[in-house]
Amino acid sequence: MNNVLSILIFLPLVAAFAIIMLPAGFKEKFKFIALGTSVVQFFISLLVYLDFNNTAAFAGVNKESQFQYIEKVSWIRLDLGSIGKLEIDYLLGIDGISMPFLILSALVMFVATLASWEIKTNLKAFFALLLLLNTAVMGVFCALDFFLFYIFYELMLLPLYFLIGMWGGVRREYAAIKFFLYTLFGSVFMLLVIIGLYFSVLNPATGNHTFNMILMMDPGNYMDGSIFSSVANQNLLGISARLLAFIVLFIAFAIKVPIVPLHTWLPDAHVEAPTPVSIILAGLLLKVGGYGIIRVCYSIFPDAAIQSSWWIGLIGVVSIIYGALNALAQTDLKKLIAYSSVSHMGFVLLGVASATTEGVSGGILQMISHGGLSAMLFFLVGMLYDRVHDREIANFRGLASVMPQFTTFIMIAFFASLGLPGFSAFMAEAFTLIGAFTSQEVNGFLPRWMAIGGSIGILLSAAYFLWTLQRMFFGQPRLKGGEEWLTRLKDVTTREKLALVPLAVLALALGIFPSLIFNKMNASVLAFIQLISG
Is the pLDDT of residue 231 over 60? Predict the structure, then answer.
């Protein structure tokens, strides 16, 4: 399966060019081109999953030879005189940490494309931007050269800015600019760290400086006296250079997670974004942040990560409780789900900060689980808004008798998200809390009260989901729009079932058989724990 990762990445880009080249008379075909692309992507990612070797010999993480589906091509070579040669490679590869995100990305993009059926204006630009975003997301999860990673990472900003700013709600320009400035703020300083790393690391095979992320994980590849050498222990502004670089990178990725207090762009972006973009924001963009913390922050600066573990765990607990309390106070259903995302992504930080096998495994599973469930929730909210153009919880009551199939799907999504046993979120949060609880004995990084704080977040999530369910769906039908709304509130269509059923199956399958993910990533997680512990 040569070049399979390149096919996964650039297939949407080819489809985007095809849409751009087609005349406007084919505008009704654009959505089918985008949908067909996402279906092909999903089946390719499924083949990668089935073919993936989960043994320790292919653990990856910090050994290039152990990554799978490696594609390495000399991309940019430039003689810089006395400095040496500029060495940038087109380097792709996956291990057990990145592989699950390929399937998640393909599935979420499929659901987002189905949600795009309600988009009626400027279809050529919309689907071209959606496919460009697809390419960027896939590229982030496959890139192993930091320069290439940064290109894909930044490429996500452009389509998202226009998708929110052109097809969003009343305050779409404000939300788009706020999102762009927040994420760009982190990215600019990230670039400075990348440049510093480049001039600190040497490729032992060529003797040149390199952007190879895997080589950056080996302390032996750092030049003596370089700014990020662990031996030299250089200081900047009175802080260890490695710790400062870790903090800069962590903030850049944490903005996307997002953590408290860097989360304020998220509710505005979600509320104003069209349904397909909300699905991608919650299902994938937030996961890019979590993935970046694991792949970049922890793997390249494990010493600084361990030094900061208590603070990262605390941020995770604060995000869990603060996000849940805010969700409990919301009157807009979409905003409630946006704040619940802040809460649920806090478990990812808590699990990773524990630096235990259970905690990291639970954190990664939480990202996969939340990716599917948040996509399902935002799709369901979008269905309601498309029918009556209202999301206020108080304006709906007794929907169970009006839309029984819709109610069934939303109950699955709510109960799965609050951590009911048998669903994916239960397994993810349970393993995360086990890791956080045992961290004090295993490595002493996190106190046990942090695990208790995470448990309080689960109780709060049950409160806001069950209260919302009781207010909107039970009792006699009482709708703000009266009879007019009753005629417009049609139950789930075939197209909508096509999007919702796979997400419901994913939540149930990972809840009953978490080994579907755990078995594939266990060797990589063990290698990751060994890397940061060493």
Answer: no
